[in-house]
Specification:
The protein has one domain (9-181): Rossmann fold (3-Layer(aba) Sandwich). Helix content is 48%, strand content 19%. It has helices spanning 17-33, 47-51, 56-60, 69-97, 110-113, 118-131, 146-149, 160-168, and strands at residues 9-14, 37-41, 64-66, 103-108, 137-144, 173-176, 179-181. The model is unreliable at 1-7 (pLDDT under 50).
């Protein structure tokens, strides 16, 4: 399925945790400097490593915050697309009230697909991307490509290559370094 280009979503491919950290911090810092609200969704064990490189002023002003994609998945499981739209609508309204014109969210997907059936995750991702259409929320889904090269990398599904192939067509752009590829 190829979704509309009205969706500001990208996929970021990285190899290992250090590569993810560098790409994520750069992406978030760019948004913070532009005055955007920034959210990041990572495994709990990695949260402090991301925030360690962000200036305290951004943290104290709550311009950057952790966002639980797992909670969003749970809303989708319980209430479907209607619940997802409600949560995103509520988030967009809060952003507007707080004076933000734009928001960026980066989500590390590996910790999410460990706890959910792969097809269900891909369906969630598609519905989330549709929900974000023409919103002021930009989404980057970050995928670790290590499983393609390493057998059973940290418990990732053995069919990870299939998941990656399917998700590539769901996003408008691929982030490669500082370049955006259409």
């Amino acid at each position: 399925m190829i979704l509309s280009k009205d969706i500001d979503s990208s996929i970021s491919l990285y190899y290992g945790k250090e590569h993810f950290l560098v790409k994520t911090v750069n992406y978030l810092l760019e948004g913070l400097e532009e005055g955007e609200k920034c959210f990041y969704s990572v495994a709990n064990s990695f949260e402090k490593r991301v925030i360690k490189f962000i200036d305290n002023d951004y943290i104290e002003s709550k311009q950057i915050e952790f966002f639980s994609m797992k909670d969003l998945i749970d809303i989708y499981k319980l209430k479907g697309t209607i619940g997802l739209k409600g949560r995103i609508s509520s988030l967009a309204e809060t952003l507007s009230q707080d004076g933000y014109c734009k928001c960026r969210l980066i989500a590390e997907v590996g910790h999410l697909i460990k706890d959910i059936d792969n097809e269900k995750y891909l369906n969630f991702e598609i519905e989330l991307l549709k929900t974000l259409t023409k919103s002021n929320i930009s989404l980057v889904c970050a995928y670790d490509v290590s499983p393609i090269f390493e057998e059973d990398y940290e418990g990732q599904p053995s069919n990870f290559k299939n998941i990656l192939n399917k998700t590539l067509s769901n996003h408008s752009y691929i982030l490669e370094g500082e370049k955006v590829i259409n």
